[in-house]
Every structure is written in structure tokens, then in C-alpha cells.
Protein: Anion-transporting ArsA/GET3 family ATPase
Amino acid sequence: MRAGEESDDRADAERVSARWPARLHVVTGKGGTGKTTVAAALALALASGGRRTLLVEVESRQGIAQLFGTDPLPYEERPIATARRGGEVRALAVDSEEALLEYLDMFYKLGAAGRALRKLGAIDFATTIAPGLRDVLLTGKVKEATTRTADKRRVYDAVVLDAPPTGRIGRFLNVTAETARLAKVGPIKTQSEGVAALLRSPITAVHVVTLLEEMPVQETIDAIADLTKLRIPVGRLILNATRPALLAGKVTQAELRRGLAAAGLPTDRATVAGLHSEARDQLIRRNLEETLRAELVELGLPLVELPLLTEGVDRVGLDMIADTLLDAPT
Structure:
């Protein structure tokens, strides 16, 4: 690598660190807002300049594999994409059963005995009678990856978690604090306290993805209020799939008729009336979107607007979103 390229890489890495300083980036949003797409693009952005990021999912949907066109992810960290200037994105699908086996082996040295428990159905039984245990295991694995070191250096510059939707994000992230409160002693209490502390530290930022639609915006507002009450740091509001305004203001039928005539298009009454109705609907939608945007601005959080990908989400689209996120103001 030439000196100039090394300098560019350092500049990229420094810019990423300055604009996105957290090490654990939790991405949530109402279902259908594109949170998995945003999480994947953010992982690519954070890997710029030769950095290494880990992209994690915890809902067994295999959404990451679908986005990148790979086989379903195992419970194993593996390279999934290369970012610009040689950065690497690895991915992991956290399975609560595998996480429990890992936990039992780590803290109780059960090894093969732990695997025997799976055959007996004891693991399903444990996570059923203590539903919060599942989320403790999931967030515990994320915490381990975020803080892991090798040769006295962090293994990952950043970890991006494609988290549960806004409707249950507070409960998901706070379950470790509840478990730490209920468990009096032992490894579960220690691990829960460690995860709870990480999630409330400057190392963590929860980014909320939304659309300019009433239900997603309301869920966003509610989720931010919940996270603030729980003292979990909120990062950016990410406004996804935005579209430019098609009209500057009201358009009369006469103006439409003149425009159609100038373009050599039909100007019959039905055509003009149909276009006028569509224009009116566009203005109503635009006014609603501006009202919703104002409600989001009032929250006082950094706001990032991402464009609608009209051609669908592919690697080119992910890179486009990654560039927009990378250039987002602080």
C-alpha cells in the first residue's frame, strides 16, 4: 500500500470515529421501516478506512444473509462484505440456545454435559420458564463481542446490532438490569450487571429508524421516551426512504392543461381531472410529512435522512446508504 493510500485510510478511519464515536450501535425501528437495511449499511460505513465491524442479528430472521445474498448465517462470526479501502464486515446470527450452551461451558465448564441438556429439552425449558433469560443471553453475546480483545487490541472497531423493533426495544435492552436486580449472586448477576453497565455507557448508542408515516413516527417518539427513562443513550434518528417533493405548490387544472398541451399530450377533461386529483393527493401527503418531520426535529436528536432506493436494496444501494451515513453531520 502506498503512503498516499495509507493516509487516505487513516483519514477515513478518523472521520468515522469522529462522526460515529460509539462502539456498540443498536439499530431499532418499527417493522417495515428498513432497520435491517440501515444496520447493514451502517456496518459498511463504520468499516471504512480498513476498520473491522461486526453486524449482529438476534431475531432468527436471517435478514442479513438475504441482504448480502449469502447462505443463512450460523452461530459463528464470518466475513460477509468488504467496505471501501479494505474494511471488513463480519456477521453473526445469535441463537439463544447456542448462546446458553456457550454460557454454560464458559462459567460452569459443562461442555458435553451442556450439549446433552439440549437433547433433553432442558434448554427450551429454561428459556421458557424464564423468558428474560433469552434476551440476557443475546445481549450478553453482543457485549462480549463489543469488548473482546486480542493482542491487547479490540477485535472489532464497532459492533452493529440489528435489534428488535421499537415496540419492545426498551424491554429487550433493560432485561439485563432487571435480571441483575433479581439475581443476588453468581455469574448471571455479574454478566447482567456488566451488560447493563455497557448499555448505559457512552460506548453505546441506540439509533431509531423511521418513515414519515404516522405510526412509525409515534412508535419512534414512544421508544425514545422509554429509552431516555431507562437512561440508555439514544444516538441518531434515521429517516429512511425519503422522497423529494414533486410539486412546489398547488396546481390548477388550467395549468395542467397548458403543460400537457406544451408536451403534446392529451388534454381531455378526464386526463386533466385525474392528474389534478393526483397532484392534490401529493400535496396532502407532503403536508403530512412536513408535520411529522417537525415532530421528529422537536426531539432534539441528530437527524439523518436517507433516500428511497427506487431500484430496490442491493449492494449498490447499501453502499449508497453507507456513504450518506458516513457523511452525516455530528
Observations:
- Residues 3-96+132-247+300-326 form a domain with the Rossmann fold fold (CATH 3.40.50.300).
